[in-house]
Amino acid sequence: MGLDIQSEIDVVKVASSKINQVDFENLAFGNVFTDHMLMCDFKDGKWERPTIKPYEPFLLDPSAKVFHYGQAIFEGMKAYKDDNDDIWLFRPDENLDRFNKSATRMAMPEVPEHIFIDGLKEILKIEKEWVKKGLGNTLYIRPFMIAIGTGVIAQPSTQYRFMIILSPAKSYYSGEVKVIIAEHYSRAANGGIGAAKAAGNYSAQFYPTKLANDQGFQQIIWTDDATHTTLEEAGTMNVFFRINDTLYTAPTSERILDGVTRKSLIDLAKREGINVAVQPVLVSEIVEAAKNGSLKEIFGAGTAAVVNPIVGFSYQDVYYELPKTENSIALELKEKLTNIQHKLAEDTFGWTVKV
Amino acid sequence: MGLDIQSEIDVVKVASSKINQVDFENLAFGNVFTDHMLMCDFKDGKWERPTIKPYEPFLLDPSAKVFHYGQAIFEGMKAYKDDNDDIWLFRPDENLDRFNKSATRMAMPEVPEHIFIDGLKEILKIEKEWVKKGLGNTLYIRPFMIAIGTGVIAQPSTQYRFMIILSPAKSYYSGEVKVIIAEHYSRAANGGIGAAKAAGNYSAQFYPTKLANDQGFQQIIWTDDATHTTLEEAGTMNVFFRINDTLYTAPTSERILDGVTRKSLIDLAKREGINVAVQPVLVSEIVEAAKNGSLKEIFGAGTAAVVNPIVGFSYQDVYYELPKTENSIALELKEKLTNIQHKLAEDTFGWTVKV
């Protein structure tokens, strides 16, 4: 979709880039931002002209709705640079689609493609030096929208701000990840906002995760809130279980995020001839499979980490260590997916989009 | 508790008050703010010195955690002025206690009493002209805390901002309130954050409430998310049902907010010799009571509205209109409670606290 008059973007560039102050070999995830940001406000029922301008703090009224009622959604995406210095996105249409589904669920306006996608491409062209070549180097993309209208009454805002900020990244997680299966705390309600990438879903996890950390576990595998018998997500990721040579993952629902990495891994696994069963996964099945040795792998899937292998889990105070696997499906799929993302392997799915 | 060195408050006053520009007879709830605000930041593991300064927008980084992960909590309170021009608070210790419970659940630091309570009293003394005499006139108080630390990684912030802003108010709701009993959407999960006054709980209600509005209902009565068979809250309020001459309300839980107005109404009703049954309330019981005529009243209870009578409810596409009641317990309790709050009746409970 081309830029029309309505979607033209004002650009104000920094006087001098801070890129030379950044140590690209030692990046903590999500802490360093590029020189510019995209900002676009929604007022009087319509989106204003987007602006790309120097990354900087902005003013908000103390009664801004985002502070009081949590109207805030986001997406996580990445940009990749190939050996020809071309920059690529991975399934950006999926992120736009999910962003707008989140917007609807949070009573926020949809962001049109010419702002979200064309705006993203425009800022990526300006920040192209921040996208580094090489497997593992990415530019993490954070589109988000917040309610900036004022007033301490619990009603949707009439004013919103859509922004895109960019953060150069290595990989998200490191070290061994042990998880605990949730027996009390929950991530989402039936009829709630679990399927939306809403800010409030994440802070709700911090306290239970801290309790898990205190017990020596890095993440929680979330279960359904009513019975705690079915497995739903791992931390902020979708989760896969390998029993013998079949991958199991829960179907998406109003409690489970429709992850782009999740759906890509399913398609990729199927192409590779791996059995994939998208069905409710019971805690009891996984415990039984761990006991009888048929549980080979568990891994999280998400944009930031891509694939995050889990080495063991705790349930009802019993720790189940997974066997060391010679032929890890998790690592195989991760390699194949990141090769597609970085344009090191043929993209037979048509997932990659050139900026 | 007196102010010690640590809790001293810096005060910067406005050059001239905007109070004369405010039409106190025609106030929309939560839209007008007083001249000053209290601000206090948490950094390096401790609370800094609070400041009372002119109400104004403040700067936040685009990657502030409140925008991305929704770490944000608040309280709702009111100040009242009696005929001697003294200013009173209503059970402020309960709000502080709940605020800090919310903080814990959202992995945020507790705010100490010398900042929350003493800071509130201090700003109220400065803004005393904004508290108007007369039943129905109040100064709505909004203490809140947001995560201001930066970084797009889903982990708790290390920096927070506690604020108090003040808004002169008449009553919150007006007109007839018809409600719809939730059959699909939900407010809270088991093991979730429903008992916390967390920002994300409110935006999660906006979309379902909009759908209810479109059908001609002002609010939703929320049910348990697993079975939708028990009644939990009404909109952003606790809810009471009067069957014959007994008041029923659900016990608080991790899904239901421990409302200060709710617990005060329970105590007040008991003092007045009214039967109060704090027990799970089934949808089926209320529908049956509506059918056989024993359901006399339904009302919401919360700080903003105090008591909000409901004229009828819809369930499974059937609308049940409540009878006109000559002797409304809702209105009787509202009058008695607001009289205590405004110091027009003796406070036998010791609930009111002089500023």
From TrEMBL, chains A, B:
Q: What is its EC number?
A: 2.6.1.42
Reading the lineage from the top rank, the first entry is Bacteria
Q: GO MF terms on file?
A: L-isoleucine-2-oxoglutarate transaminase activity; L-leucine-2-oxoglutarate transaminase activity; L-valine-2-oxoglutarate transaminase activity
In the record, N6-(pyridoxal phosphate)lysine modifications are located at 197
Q: Does the keyword NAD apply?
A: no
| ATP-binding keyword on record | no
Give cofactor(s), names only. Answer: pyridoxal 5'-phosphate
Q: Which reaction does it catalyse?
A: L-leucine + 2-oxoglutarate = 4-methyl-2-oxopentanoate + L-glutamate; L-valine + 2-oxoglutarate = 3-methyl-2-oxobutanoate + L-glutamate; L-isoleucine + 2-oxoglutarate = (S)-3-methyl-2-oxopentanoate + L-glutamate
* Gene3D superfamilies listed in its UniProt record: 3.30.470.10, D-amino Acid Aminotransferase, subunit A, domain 2
Biological process (GO) annotations?
amino acid biosynthetic process; branched-chain amino acid biosynthetic process
The EC category is transferase
Which InterPro entries does the UniProt entry name for this protein? Answer: Aminotrans_IV, Aminotrans_IV_CS, Aminotransferase-like, B_amino_transII, BCAT-like_C, BCAT-like_N
What keyword terms does UniProt attach to this protein?
Amino-acid biosynthesis, Aminotransferase, Branched-chain amino acid biosynthesis, Pyridoxal phosphate, Transferase
Q: Which family does it belong to?
A: Belongs to the class-IV pyridoxal-phosphate-dependent aminotransferase family.
Question: What's the name of the protein?
Answer: Branched-chain-amino-acid aminotransferase
Which species is the source of this protein?
Answer: Flavobacterium swingsii
